[in-house]
């Protein structure tokens, strides 16, 4: 039995599931559950389901994403393309998607578990994984028509095609709504013109969720999302970017030069793309917050044995209080960040509650703590922390991305502050 089918039969066993009985929930929560971002019939996994899933992912990473693979991916700056098929065979590419298109319908806690464990093995494989399984697959799951889902999701989930999402442009990053890529209505579809920058999986992707302006004068009310296929005429990847970290997670600049996209490939409603974009960003930030968790765990995995084996002044360096203090801080930051991410994901799964400030907060907190923990990892390894024989420098270079991608730390703080403003202005009125 394939691992995917094995998971499916595992999660179908009622004894393994925890059931939230709608009748015992307050009415406000029941209403929110009705608009939940899960496939039909979704039931939140129990903690033992999630533990079992974590063990399966760890078995996978021990076998397929060894330290050698992670290091080679970083040094060669090339994604190991056979990984897509392996991730697909393992059932990890459609964690939040419908079972009838090959997904596991296990929800966002499960997606965070897979993301955390893959990122623990390799930050860059983790980032590409999330761009595919969350940014592309989950956006299609949430916004695709039945025909679009049937057409694209089986291949994406099996790992035979690669997905990406393109919203950022060289002139529109934090202020993404100021994007300039346009889509002009023509007979039978739209013609896209413009460029997209820093697109994860862009150089390899077969299917890309692309945000454009269909009504450039209407600002956020004129945005539409499209599904662009690699073989559409006029589409190309101009270059692969050379990055300081997340090397091997291929990042590209994409060009749309008069690309005709049939109307069947409009994702969601015309001019309502900002809703697709913003709602997608909440869940994207939540799932991506598990990336820095994995990197922090990887830093612990390196630092703990090293500091207990390395002796100076006749004793393991971990017996010095200054070293213990750093280890304790690393551990506490990881555990606090982990609790925040999984608590936010549990509320999405169990009561359908998506709080923008917590999705932004979880990644804000985890990302900054990951940079701190990986710097501490380098410090505690001393000279060995500074040489490329050890993974410490890669962990730091990978961690830093999470303070920039999916909205920077400054923008996340702004998003949280704005949520308070909204709450207080509604109290005032
Ligand atoms: C490796 C990598 C992968 C990525 N993958 C994708 C992807 O798959 N798809 C995609 O669409 N995009 C992707 N991005 C793009 C990413 O989301 C943007 O880089 C990010 O949103 C920041 O935009 P910017 O680079 O234009 O920075 P800018 O917006 O120019 O910001 C520069 C600095 O100014 C600060 N700043 C800007 N505005 C404000 C403000 N109002 N208040 C306070 N500070 C402010 C920022 O916080 C930052 O410190 C990726 C980026 C990287 C590096």
UniProtKB/TrEMBL annotation:
Gene3D superfamilies for the chain: Acyl-CoA dehydrogenase/oxidase, N-terminal domain (1.10.540.10), Butyryl-CoA Dehydrogenase, subunit A, domain 2 (2.40.110.10), Butyryl-CoA Dehydrogenase, subunit A, domain 3 (1.20.140.10)
Record keywords: FAD, Flavoprotein, Oxidoreductase
One of the protein's GO biological processes: L-leucine catabolic process
Domain Acyl-CoA dehydrogenase/oxidase N-terminal residues, every copy: 49-159
Domain Acyl-CoA dehydrogenase/oxidase C-terminal: 271-419
Domain of life assignment: Eukaryota
Cofactor requirements of the protein: FAD
GO molecular function: 3-methylbutanoyl-CoA dehydrogenase activity; flavin adenine dinucleotide binding
Residues spanning the membrane: none
Residue ranges of domain Acyl-CoA oxidase/dehydrogenase middle in the record: 164-259
InterPro entries: Acyl-CoA_DH_CS, Acyl-CoA_Oxase/DH_mid-dom, Acyl-CoA_Oxase/DH_mid-dom_sf, AcylCo_DH-like_C, AcylCo_DH/oxidase_C, AcylCoA_DH/ox_N, AcylCoA_DH/ox_N_sf, AcylCoA_DH/oxidase_NM_dom_sf
Annotated spans, Disordered: 31-52
Family: Belongs to the acyl-CoA dehydrogenase family.
Protein name: Acyl-CoA dehydrogenase NM domain-like protein
